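Budget justification aside, the reviewers requested a transparent look at the raw inputs and outputs of the sequence design task funded under Objective 1. We therefore reproduce one unedited record. The lines immediately below are the structure tokens for a 319-residue chain.
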């Protein structure tokens, strides 16, 4: 048959097949197409024996598996890095993107850091102190001389004393049934002349009638406690000093009976003519005060009739 390109006539060179002279491939219209099976990849595969097809299929599977494995490794490597990076942002100890190495970055709310410490001052003693370099406050106890046992303030107060302050409330004159002054028998010495007041009792051991005597000392600042001594007078007449007991209250404000924060009692009938060291009490503010109240029974037994409390001298030793 004639080659459609070179015109050669060779046996077996049907239209559309390869010409053995020029190598041209041409397909004539209406051909059955069987020649394609020998000239394409699919056609060549279809003409292979079964053994070769099996080997070829195995090779394809191996190659495809290698490609899939490599792709999965690459994908998993990229995904893990992304996951770690996303989870790390904002977590303490791992800086977010944009923060480089070097000193670690503190992660915390703003405004909570303490201010920088004030630099050591190199100013001369004459230089004024700045707000960040305040001058040391003076000692609150340096103004007072130190006394025995570390006490720095000692003073008496009471009737006839020029130190401290002494006041009476509810006083009335009615002979031996009211208030009266005894000229001697109290503490005499220092700033006191020895007089004392006799205070009528309320008639009840649990009720007050409103008669009070108040001692107070204005200490100023810097004192923590005061030790209290009560002098129990002795006039020679028992009814003048007959508290059994006499009740006292410790006040932070001498003008306010409700400021009492503790109290004590002294049996005057047992301690006539002697000072009684009561106790030490905390100082509440710049004033220390003690108040005698009038509760007590002055009737019944013969020795109780006309009994009075004695309001004499008290001393404080404060530090």
């Amino acid at each position: 048959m004639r080659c459609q390109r070179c015109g050669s006539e060779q046996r077996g060179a049907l239209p559309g097949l390869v010409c053995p002279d020029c190598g041209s491939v041409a397909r004539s219209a209406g051909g059955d197409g069987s020649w394609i099976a020998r000239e394409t990849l699919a056609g060549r595969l279809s003409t292979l024996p079964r053994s070769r097809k099996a080997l070829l299929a195995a090779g394809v599977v191996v190659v495809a598996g290698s490609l899939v494995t490599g792709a999965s490794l690459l994908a998993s490597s990229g995904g893990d890095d992304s996951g770690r990076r996303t989870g790390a942002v904002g977590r303490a100890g791992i800086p977010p993107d944009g923060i480089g190495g070097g000193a670690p970055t503190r992660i915390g709310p703003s405004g909570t850091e303490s201010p920088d410490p004030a630099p050591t001052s190199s100013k001369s003693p004459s230089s004024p102190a700045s707000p960040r370099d305040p001058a040391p406050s003076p000692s609150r106890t340096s103004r007072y001389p130190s006394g025995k046992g570390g006490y720095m303030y000692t003073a008496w107060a009471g009737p006839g004393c020029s130190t401290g302050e002494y006041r009476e409330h509810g006083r009335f004159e009615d002979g031996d049934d009211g208030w009266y002054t005894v000229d001697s028998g109290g503490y005499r010495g220092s700033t006191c002349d020895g007089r004392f007041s006799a205070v009528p009792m309320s008639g009840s051991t649990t009720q007050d009638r409103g008669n009070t005597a108040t001692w107070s000392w204005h200490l100023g600042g810097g004192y923590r406690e005061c030790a209290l001594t009560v002098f129990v007078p002795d006039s020679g007449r028992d009814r003048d000093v007959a508290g059994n007991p006499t009740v006292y209250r410790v006040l932070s404000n001498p003008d306010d009976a409700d400021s009492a924060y503790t109290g004590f009692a002294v049996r005057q009938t047992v301690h006539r003519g002697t000072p009684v060291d009561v106790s030490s009490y905390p100082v509440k503010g710049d004033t220390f005060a003690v108040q005698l109240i009038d509760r007590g029974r002055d009737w019944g037994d013969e020795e109780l009739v006309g009994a009075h409390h004695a309001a004499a001298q008290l001393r404080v030793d404060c530090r």
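The domain at 149-318 is CATH 2.60.120 (Jelly Rolls). DSSP finds three helices and 14 strands in the chain. Computational costs for records of this kind are itemized in the attached budget.
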